[in-house]
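Progress against Task 2.4 (sequence-to-structure conversion) is shown through the following example record, which the project officer requested during the mid-term review.
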Amino acid sequence: MDWIVSISILFLSTLIMMLLFKMGNPWKKSSKDFPPGPRPLPVVGNLHIMDLKKPYQTMLEYGPVFQIQLGLQKIVVLTGFDTIKEALVNKADVFAERAPVPIFEEFSNGFGVAFSHGDNWRVMRRFMLTTLRDYGMGKRSMESRIAEECSFLVKEFESYKGELVFLLEFKNLSVLCYLEGVEVPA
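Structure tokens generated for the chain above:
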């Protein structure tokens, strides 16, 4: 019976060692693909050393681009106007990616504008901006048309004179009228 316990312990310890070897050393410096940053703890990351009253201290120690780890998520932090401008303007295609959020991935399958990422996000964003530009986004006429539709909506609400109003009947009316260029009489 003792040999079964010994073999079980040996098997379990071998399995644990293989798992640790596969995971790598959690205390080693970050990989060459990431900028330098403080060493994280295995599960907590860098939460234990974050000083929210003096976040600039990390920048002074590691420079304008550094890495922190919040829990299991690695994050690259950019500080300073020149660094952020370089990343978001001059190298926008490199920094345009979003991190996937697992809960939203489950519900949306990576589609949609708000929580998609990768090539799908780029396509959806381009489609949305093109469509909105076609309907007047960024033009001065859009503001006056929205104000006009709002005034029609307010007049319609005032016509109820204190009675209950079922708002779902009106939520899309002004948007649809604006998009189609149709003015619906009250």
